[in-house]
Specification:
- The chain is α/β, with parallel strands linked by helices and 301 residues long.
- It folds into two domains: 49-140, no CATH class; 164-301, Transcription Regulator spoIIAA, CATH 3.30.750.200.
- It has ten helices and ten strands.
- The chain has helices at 3-8, 36-44, 79-99, 119-132, 152-161, 175-180, 187-199, 218-231, 262-278, 295-300; strands at 52-58, 60-61, 73-74, 104-111, 140-145, 165-171, 204-211, 235-240, 282-284, 288-290.
- Strand 4 (104-111), helix 4 (119-132) and strand 5 (140-145) form a beta-alpha-beta unit.
- The chain is globular and about 55 Å long.
Amino acid sequence: MTQENTVLKSVDVTRPKRLPRYTSYPTALEFGPIDGKSHDKWLKSLPICEPISLYFHIPYCDKLCWFCGCLTTISNKYGPVEKFLEVLKQEVRQTAKKTGRLKVSHIHFGGGSPSILDPADFRSLIDVLSECYDIDDVPEFAIEIDPRTVDRDKIFAYASSGVNRVSLGIQDFNLKTQEAINRIQTVDLIEKTMRDFIGAGIERVIFGLIYGLPYQSIDTIAETILTTIKFKPSRIALFGYAHVPHMKKHQKLVGEHELPNQKERQAQFNWASKMLTDNGYRAIGLDNFALDDDHLFTSFD
């Protein structure tokens, strides 16, 4: 163990108070069935003088990540994705008829794996958006990326469509942990992906990391953070793994005996947080860290 990691042992690891998950707003507990009349009323009541934000959920992945808690479907064929896109385009057009052609300030693609979309299909969806809404000069146009499913053609499709921020699903750089969650991606792959995004002019990058995964320790978390810092992403999202096999049956593939306990999880977070703040990142909220040139940092001030 390095001297740097030995210092970690002195970080406070007392059990924190329970807090609600707040990574989405409204929180998941606020969501429920919505009747058609209420939906139409809300859409038609949007003020025409204010910009709107658009979120698109692409509920498909090529492979199953055993830790995943997202709404997604594994598809070995592209056909279902194409059918979904056609329905999505219809919904965009139908929704625009109720809202009118509003100005858009934020676009976000989540999933699932939005990077599963073929370049031509992504462009065609953006064409429909442009047809229905004013998406010129959108300040924040972001997409979540599975580095294993992206290539240069897709990256340049994003850039030409106006994407200006990407979020890379890294999770952890330790191979043993990657194998335990069925998500293997090398440092070389991330390096190439970063190089391609920067080459395409997309320099605002978020790294998504997770603590509390199988076989993680203070030492492995430290190595992941050190590797992350070398890439210098503008923002880092550091989330705790939520092990809920009673809700997500595939999480049973993640053996509970391999998971760190609550005290170890807190120690992992404390050390990762300390390393990030010591290297120029500012803690924003509970799980986001940003460099001083990231707009989350400047907005916080």
